[in-house]
Amino acid sequence: MESSRRPRLTPAIADIRRAVRALLPAQGLVLVGLSGGADSLALAAATAFEAGRAGIRAGAVIVDHNLQPGSADVAARAAHTARQLGLDPVLVLGVSVVDDGTGPEAAARTSRYAAFDVALTQTGASGVLLGHTLDDQAETVLLGLARGSGPTSLRGMAARTGLILRPLLGIRRAATRQFCADAGLEPWSDPQNFDPRYSRVRVRQTVLPMLESELGPGVGLALARTSEALREDSDALDELARTVLRAHWADRRIAAAVLAAHPAAIRQRVIRFAVEEVCGVWLDRGQALAVAALVTNWHGQGALSLPGIRVIRQGGSLIFSVPGPT
């Protein structure tokens, strides 16, 4: 519950309000993705304050994943808190989480972001603010390293991804807890945040603390800074690759000589973007290298069939197509 007295401007409150202010749009309505935890609660309170000062509207969207007993009560409490903070409208959206083989965490995330899309459509809001912190960014980078998933994962989360805004990526998780304490807000503690069955929980509770203990307290910050640097490099390479594709892509084909003329980092991106354009499939590194071999290790091999895409080298060009029914 929010304290009846106006909170004094402590360093935590000032830092989080400043971070929110930097990403607020100039007009219209924004929504805060509110779970009731310290991160999203601090974000909601800061957004309510800064939106009022900026003369724009701020609401909240609460997603009930229906994964725990009493989840509807938790969602209702979060909605009540949002209204007390002055947020309006306040939407509570229930979702069904179906694990499609990607794991429970990824399945819940997919359902949650689908709910955000629904909220944006229903309200006409210009964005949804999420409470991901610097610590979340460090965990994301570390998980990406463990998977060996390359720069796509190591670049971490962006402050802006379409209509999704993450103003707290430069804020430590401890600051959001301090914000709540300073503002007299009582955050909800999600038991799933302590369940070691989830890889992110193990990283949060065991791996990162061990690294900070053994290597120094700056590991989390270093990981977040690494993701920022990788994002800058990756964005530049992506734009170069898209420029090559726009210039040389026609009839779902591109000349092998064009691909051969570019370094591997550009070539493999062009291949990924071409496949994405044809069938909406995103190739992993091994699959992209297999397609690139039709350029770099060409010895007359036949068509390459990958999940959702078929690539053949013919007449000096790589031709991309969607496989027909078997």
TrEMBL record:
It is found in: Cytoplasm. It is an enzyme of class 6 (ligase). Residues 30-205 form the tRNA(Ile)-lysidine/2-thiocytidine synthase N-terminal domain. Its EC number is 6.3.4.19. Its main location: cytoplasm. Residues 257-318 form the tRNA(Ile)-lysidine synthase substrate-binding domain. Gene3D superfamilies: 1.20.59.20, HUPs (3.40.50.620). Keywords: ATP-binding, Cytoplasm, Ligase, Nucleotide-binding, tRNA processing. GO terms for cellular component: cytoplasm. InterPro entries: Rossmann-like_a/b/a_fold (IPR014729), TilS/TtcA_N (IPR011063), tRNA_Ile_lys_synt (IPR012094), tRNA_Ile_lys_synt_N (IPR012795), tRNA_Ile_lys_synt_subst-bd (IPR015262). It holds the Pfam family ATP_bind_3. It catalyses: cytidine(34) in tRNA(Ile2) + L-lysine + ATP = lysidine(34) in tRNA(Ile2) + AMP + diphosphate + H(+). It comes from the Bacteria. ATP binds at S35, G36, G37, A38, D39, S40. GO terms for molecular function: ATP binding; tRNA(Ile)-lysidine synthase activity. GO terms for biological process: tRNA modification. NCBIfam families: lysidine_TilS_N. The N-terminal region contains the highly conserved SGGXDS motif, predicted to be a P-loop motif involved in ATP binding. Ligates lysine onto the cytidine present at position 34 of the AUA codon-specific tRNA(Ile) that contains the anticodon CAU, in an ATP-dependent manner. Cytidine is converted to lysidine, thus changing the amino acid specificity of the tRNA from methionine to isoleucine. Belongs to the tRNA(Ile)-lysidine synthase family. This is tRNA(Ile)-lysidine synthase. It comes from Cryobacterium luteum. The lineage of its organism: Bacteria, Bacillati, Actinomycetota, Actinomycetes, Micrococcales.
